[in-house]
Amino acid sequence: MTSTDVKDAKPRAPRPPRWSKIPLALVVVAALLFLGSRLDLLPGFGNLFGEETRDRTGPTLLESIQDLDRYEAASGNFQVVVDLEKDAKYLPDAIRGTRTLYVGAGSVSSYVDFGGLGEGSVTTDEARTSATIRLPHARLGEPALDPDRSYAVSKQRGLLDRLGDLFSDNPADERAVNQLAARHIADAAKESELTGRAEKNTTSMLQGLLRSLGFTKVTVVYA
């Protein structure tokens, strides 16, 4: 090759990058979809990459039916703040230990049991204008926690507890605080006037019922 050929040779143009081979229309569509999902610029594309929830629960099975021979006469709503702490001996809380602050809300009903009433529980006079009814004292039902109003405020866990949650089938298990909340609600219901209100309401119901049948004097005795 002579010196003249070297001077006449033109430098090669640089190769275009690989991304330049992507069609321009595809790049524009991808940019619009991204902006539309972020800024809701495109109607209908705001939830393109959103989260979907599907309920795949099977049919609910009826296990048993029980006849209730009792009158639900009153109900009370309760709320308690549970502070449950579990520590390990000889280990600091940062290594092993849990503390849960939980708000438990639920209700307790009070009822009068009519199932044990016999022939001698209701007595009337000969003119059937006066009646006396003997009933057992009102009782308290089991506390029923409301999941919509119960929630965990804070959870503190040590390092070993966090590692254990990685291999647990139910890392957010709250059975302990639920049971403790139900126990405190039951204790509060015992100290309340719920059973007294239930007996008062039951008396009013029976008096109204028998008076509509022609009785002028109705006495309800709890024993």
Could you list some keywords that capture this structure?
223 residues; alpha+beta; five-stranded antiparallel beta sheet; three-stranded mixed beta sheet; 8 strands; 30% helix
Q: Would you give an account of this structure?
A:
The chain is elongated. Strands 1, 2, 5, 6 and 7 form a 5-stranded antiparallel beta sheet that branches. The protein has helices at about 5-10, 25-40, 160-165, 175-190, 195-210; strands spanning about 70-85, 95-115, 120-125, 130-135, 140, 145, 150-155, 215-220. It contains 5 helices and 8 strands. The mean pLDDT is about 80. The N and C termini lie far apart (about 125 Å). The longest helix has 19 residues, at about 195-210. It has about 220 residues and is α+β, with helices and mostly antiparallel strands.
Number of strands: 8
Summed over residues and divided by their number, the pLDDT gives a mean of 78
Strand portion: 25-35%
The residue ranges in which pLDDT falls below 50 over 5 or more consecutive positions are: none
What is the CA-atom radius of gyration, in angstroms? Answer: 37 Å
Element order: H for helix, E for strand: HHEEEEEEEHHHE
Helical content stands at 25-40%
Total helix count? 5
Q: What is the SS-derived class?
A: alpha+beta
CA(first)-CA(last) distance: 125 Å
Q: Classify the oligomer.
A: single chain
Principal-axes geometry comes out as: elongated
Task: Describe the main β-sheet briefly.
Answer: 5 strands, antiparallel
Summarize the structure.
The protein is an alpha+beta fold and 223 residues long. It has helices spanning 3-8, 24-39, 159-166, 175-191, 194-212, and strands at residues 70-87, 97-113, 122-124, 130-135, 139-140, 144-145, 151-157, 217-222.
